[in-house]
Design a protein that fits this description.
By secondary structure, the protein is an alpha/beta fold. The chain has a single domain (about 1-160, about 190-215, about 255-270), classed as Rossmann fold. About 40% of the residues lie in helices and about 15% in strands. The protein has nine helices and twelve strands. The protein has helices at about 10-25, 45-55, 75-100, 130-145, 165-175, 190-205, 220-230, 260-265, 275-280, and strands at about 1-5, 35, 60-65, 100-105, 150-155, 155-160, 180, 185, 190, 210, 220, 235-240. The strands form four sheets. The chain has a six-stranded parallel β-sheet, with helices on both faces. Helix 1 links the parallel strand 1 (about 1-5) and strand 2. Helix 1 (about 10-25) packs across helix 6. The longest helix has 22 residues, at about 75-100. The chain is globular, with a radius of gyration of 18 Å. NADP nicotinamide-adenine-dinucleotide phosphate (NAP) binds near residues 65, 108 and 157.
């Protein structure tokens, strides 16, 4: 089976490609892996997606492509919708035609954060901003075009490389020696390595529908910044602040902790506690 990783240049795409090459070469059963960035395959181009999948006999697609700039999406909702909703649908249509597998990735930002306990897959969605709205539309279009697709909702994603909160803390705290971070938004930091493994599990097990897929436990952005600085051995001061003191173009949920209820019920939840995964990020395990 040939595999397509869409958005192969992003932090999750690169991690998944590495996992398939280094640890799971047998996953493709002798087939090839095409990890393609936007310049090689724009998922918004339906004709290009369909013909690429046809010509290369793609039997499984892992969609790591997305418009991920949460703040910019507020003023660029159409552009975000083109990738997060219509682009995702194009991949689903290609796998519908090929009778193939699609593992798509969505977000905790489909929730409004008003719940005071972790969100399960059956909780109603009510995104606060354009990014969450376009990702929710993507989930719906994907499952309507290909009901057998697996949609993994993750949160606060970071890899060793790429643009993410952990790397921002390392850069800003390292350069300035001090950083203000919001302490009243709670979620679960999730390492790309852990999510990539579960994307393969979803494909192997033939999972379909929506699954929450984050590391275990929860913390605030402030807690995550403090732990990052500690593990990196940086002598920087992390100062807590409130959401009101740190306004951003996009509103973010106060609580976006997810419970991996469906994966757990199937005995497939192998995510680590977030602190352990973060230590692994720093190669301390
Ligand atoms: N990052 C988080 O905290 C977070 C949280 C929850 C869920 N997620 C979800 O997790 C998934 C992976 O995110 P990530 O953090 O790995 O994002 P990322 O590092 O920003 O990677 C996304 C990739 O998608 C590519 N892309 C954008 N538009 C495209 C298009 N039209 N065609 C093909 N590729 C395109 C981007 O290429 P360019 O760089 O060239 O634009 C980028 O390489 C996404 O579905 C995201 O919504 C992320």
């Amino acid at each position: 089976m040939n595999i397509l990783i869409a958005g192969g240049g992003g932090q999750l795409g690169r991690e998944l490609e590495r996992l398939l090459e280094e640890k799971e070469p047998s996953f493709c059963g002798g087939g090839g892996v095409f990890a393609l960035g936007r310049r090689e395959l724009d998922i918004c181009d339906r004709a290009a997606v369909l013909s690429f999948c046809r010509e290369n006999k793609i039997g499984a697609v892992f969609n790591c492509a997305a418009y991920t700039d949460v703040n910019a999406a507020e003023s660029q909702e159409e552009a975000a919708y083109a990738v997060n909703a219509l682009g995702a649908e194009n991949l689903a249509l290609a796998m519908e035609e090929a009778r193939g597998i699609l593992v798509h990735v969505s977000t905790d930002y489909v929730f409004d954060g008003k719940k005071t306990s972790p969100y399960t897959e059956s909780d109603p969605c009510a995104p606060l901003g354009a990014y969450g709205r376009t990702k929710l539309a993507g989930e719906r279009l994907v499952l309507s075009a290909l009901p057998s697709a697996a949609v993994l909702r993750t949160a606060w994603l970071y890899g060793r490389e790429g643009k993410n909160f952990v790397n921002t803390v390392l850069r800003v705290a390292g350069e300035k020696g001090e950083m203000r971070v919001v302490s009243d938004q709670f979620g679960t930091p999730t390492f790309t390595q852990d999510l990539a493994r579960h994307m393969l599990t979803a494909a192997r097990e033939g999972l379909s529908g929506i699954f929450h897929a984050t590391c275990k436990g929860s913390c605030s952005w402030f807690d995550l910044a403090c732990e990052t600085v500690r593990l990196a051995g940086l002598k920087a001061r992390i100062l807590p602040c409130t959401t009101e003191e740190y306004p951003t173009p996009a509103a973010r949920p106060k609580n976006s902790v997810l419970e991996n209820a469906r994966l757990s019920a199937l005995g497939l939840d192998a995510f680590r506690p977030w602190e352990e995964a973060l230590r692994a990020r720093f190669s301390l395990l």
